[in-house]
Amino acid sequence: MSESPRKFFMSPPEGAERFFEATKEGKLLIQSCPSCGRKQFYPRKICIHCGSPDVEWVEASGRGAVHTYTVIHQQGMPGWREEVPYVSAIIDLEEGVRMTANVVECAPADVRIEMPVEVTFVDEGMYTLPKFRPAS
Question: Mean pLDDT per 10-residue run, the chain (136 residues)?
């Protein structure tokens, strides 16, 4: 029996190591700036709002809503092509930031804009990825 192809991943952005450590623990982290009080995602070394270098990691609730999405029907990358069709979405988290993630545990045709979702974590081998499912 042949082994399924490994999924291709790009290298994570510099400074994102803590984010991926937390996903292995079932935690979704975003950054918060103590100087201006605003939140941000994806991980950066400075606050995108005020430029402060004092950003901190905070745990997000994991709840949000679908802002927009697309259904992927074709995928040429090994490991991913076996999953089509799948949903790639931009999620508005309760904390006021957006992140891109897959919507899982429902048919692609059932995904809707403003659909409430909650985070779930999927071990993809190299990384544990946050994905979102319809909120219970």
Answer: 60 84 97 97 93 97 98 84 92 98 97 98 92 96
